[in-house]
């Protein structure tokens, strides 16, 4: 994951091209142990967004798919054949963050 850390330190992902994104974070959790069980290093990509999840994922993939493809290439099991939107969707854990304002866009908040 050191290569991924280096990549992230230099990256400038174009989230400004994602009108549904309120907040985004990408971080790497170090390998650790929990209740004597080893946990691998993990790349965490999390967004808070408005609207349907599928539309948001498609928008993120369209805006920065090539950049995310480069990042995800550092992950175990990732291959060049993976589709970024499909990868995000298949690894998505919904309801990690609750927003009571699903239909309020970042532009609405700014206004």
Secondary structure layout plus pairing:
Blueprint: H1 2-10, E1 21-29, E2 32-34, E3 37-39, E4 42-49, H2 53-72, H3 84-90, H4 106-110
Antiparallel strand pairs: 1-4, 2-3
Helix pairs in contact: 2-3
Describe this structure in words.
The protein is globular, with a radius of gyration of 15 Å. The strands form two sheets. A two-stranded antiparallel ribbon has the order 1-4. A two-stranded antiparallel sheet has the order 2-3. Helix 2 packs across helix 3. Strand 2 and strand 3 (37-39) form a beta hairpin. It has one domain (2-95). It is 37% helix and 21% strand. It is of the alpha+beta class.
Based on CA atoms alone, the radius of gyration comes out at 15 Å
In one word, what is the shape? globular
Q: Termini separation (Å)?
A: 40 Å
The average pLDDT score comes to 88
Main sheet: which strands, in order across?
1-4
Record field, number of beta strands? 4
By secondary-structure content and strand pairing, the structural class works out as alpha+beta
**How do the SSEs run, as a string of H and E?**
HEEEEHHH
Taken as a percent bin, the fraction of beta residues is: 15-25%
Sequence stretches where pLDDT stays below 50 over 5 or more residues: none
Count every helix, treating DSSP H or I runs of 4 or more residues as helices: 4
How much helicity do the residues have?
A: 25-40%
Largest sheet: 2 strands, antiparallel
